[in-house]
TrEMBL record:
It comes from Natronoglomus mannanivorans. Gene3D superfamilies: Winged helix-like DNA-binding domain superfamily/Winged helix DNA-binding domain (1.10.10.10). It comes from the Archaea. Belongs to the transcriptional regulator TrmB family. This is TrmB family transcriptional regulator. InterPro entries: TrmB-like, Tscrpt_reg_TrmB_C, Tscrpt_reg_TrmB_N, WH-like_DNA-bd_sf, WH_DNA-bd_sf. Residues 32-51, 66-93 are annotated as: Disordered. Residues 10-67 form the Transcription regulator TrmB N-terminal domain. Residues 128-370 form the Transcription regulator TrmB C-terminal domain.
Amino acid sequence: MDRATLSTQLQQLGLSEQDARTYLAALEREDGTTTTTIADETSLDESAVDESTRRLAARGFVMFESANETGETDETERGRDHETTGPSTIYPRPPATVLESIRTTLDSLEDGFGVDAPATGSRLPFDVLETRSELLERLAASIEGATEEVALSIPASMLADLEDELRDAVQRDVLVALLVSGDEEFTADRFEEIASVARVWSRRAPVIGVADYGRGVVASNEMGTDSEVADEYGILLDYQPFAFVLMGSFFGSYWRIATQLFETEPDPLPRTYTNIRRAVFQATLRLEAGTDVHVTAEARPVGDETFDTVEGRLVDVRQSLLEPVHESFAIENALIVEREDSEGAEGERITLGGEGAFVEELQTRSIRLSALESA
């Protein structure tokens, strides 16, 4: 199985793309490797690898040692958090050990909730939500667990209930696309610090929440507004293909007809992204601001296994998160880059998509945006 497929399946277990890449890179050196080496191999910032290592250690995927100021390592500190130094040496746990730990956790949850496992040993990838409080609880948990992006459609009456979770997500650098429906009127500053981009719609949209393309929640608008409503149910979809379809419905229908009211300020440059939607979102903000952007991407032709460095000037995007929309199909996310030829003259234009891209010419696993004059 190739690394891209393994990465996708690890993300289905709840890892972010960044964490999955870090673990897979560490696995190639069972005797341990450094965060610097992994950063070089994955084109991630070393600070991002440090953060991933801590998250992976907390979930039992790796152990790590942190160097002290003399450059020595302390065996007793393996796996602990450190305030002054980041992880320096990573030791991956074998996949069999990790998977057994996950199975044990699931079995323990079944026992704790008094759930009888089906005779076939299979688990249905959805749960029925029967009350507004349960719906809020599942939405809050999805937002809290997100590491890359959240797409959320809620009635205005639910905004205050989820505001803390949304603010924490934005502070974690999660991309938050928020749609609020209903008669209540808002100003743009209402969404500062709780959304990356926000839209409003005066009609009643269903409740939809999708986190990291891995888990989705859907319910009627009535269930979100009335705690006493009867005969209304929500569904938690804990299955990536279903969540992907739900994300497509969100951006392909309700998001399109809502009115954009707020967009955040762009990130400082230079900045490296491993999530294509975040890269395209930031590139779009920069184009709107009139910034000339240089793109450096680790990319490969669709269907190929070998990544190479691709560089050029950002000339356009394909996206539907921000107005004006430029896309040929729902949830399209692509950068259009003009390569320079060997003499620095204008060259060909190419399209860059994410790891699972099939329409674009190249798939990417990391994208660095920088101001053109400082590239």
